[in-house]
Amino acid sequence: MQAGPWRITALLDASGPFFLPAGAAFSGATDDDWARAARIDPEAFGPDDTWNLAFRCFAIHLPRGGYALVDAGIGPADSPASSWAPVPGHLLERLAQAGIDRRDVRLVVLTHLHEDHFGWSVSPGGVPNFPNARYVIQRTEIDALGGDSVVHTAVIDPLLATGQLNTVDGRVCVAGHRGDGVSVLPTPGHTPGHQSVVVRGHGRQVVITGDVLVHAVQLADPGVAYRFEADQDTARRTRRAMLDEAGCRPTWLATAHLNTPFLRA
Length: 265
Ligand SMILES: [Zn+2]
Hints:
Elements: E1 2-3, E2 6-17, H1 22-25, H2 31-40, E3 52-61, E4 67-70, H3 91-97, E5 105-109, E6 134-138, H4 139-143, H5 150-162, E7 165-168, E8 172-177, E9 180-186, E10 195-201, E11 204-210, H6 217-220, H7 232-246, E12 251-255, E13 262-264
Parallel strand pairs: 4-5, 5-6, 6-7, 11-12
Antiparallel strand pairs: 1-2, 2-3, 3-4, 8-9, 9-10, 10-11, 12-13
Bound molecules: zinc ion (ZN).
Zinc ion (ZN) binds next to loops.
C-alpha cells in the first residue's frame, strides 16, 4: 500500500483460532451484524463459531531511509503470548523476506502493551530485537501497567537499559510532517494508552488501527464491544470517531487481526 512517498508493507506474524468462540468475544452483536461481518471478512468464520484471526504488523518505508515498524506480533515460542496465541510467530522471517534488515528499523511503534503486539520487540534474553530503533509508546499506556506487570521485565526495563524507550504524550508526528507524514494518535479504550498510526501522503490516508477494531463485526456495527476492551464505552467512542474521520477523506484501514490487511474505510 502506498500513500504518497510512504510504502506500507503488511507482515503476517501468525494466524489461527481464538481461544473463545466469536459469540462469546462479541456477545452484543446481532445476527445482522454477523451477516455483514461475514461479507467483510469471510475467513474469520470457522466451524462451531470459531473466530480465525491474523496477528499482523506493518512496516513503513521512510523516504529518508530505514523503516518504521508498527507492532511486534506474538513473538517466539516462549513469548508471553504463548499461553493463548498460535506461537511461534514469524515476524523476523517476514521482515527478511520483505528485504528489511532489522538494523534498518528506526522506529518501533507499539500500539499498546498486550502480549500479541509486543512479542518480538525484545528477545527472551532481554535484548531489543531492533538495535537502532526508538520504541514509541504512549506514557498513559506505561502508567496503566501494574507495578508487577510482566511487561516491565519483558519490554520496558530492557528498553530503558539501552536508552531506546521513547515515551510520548498525545498526537505526535514521528516522520515527515503532520499534513504528509506518519503520526501516532491516541485511540484509547482497548487499553488506556492505546495509539493508532496515521500515514498521510498525496491525498491518501492509511490508518494502522491497532486493536480499535479486532473483528469485522466492529466495522459492521462500531457499537459492538469486544470482551477484553479495558473500557468498552471509550472504545466505542474511539471506533466511531475513527470511522467518522475516515469518511472525510480517502482512507484505508490497516488492521492487526482481520484476515485482509487493508480495507477501504
Ligand atoms: Zn491484539
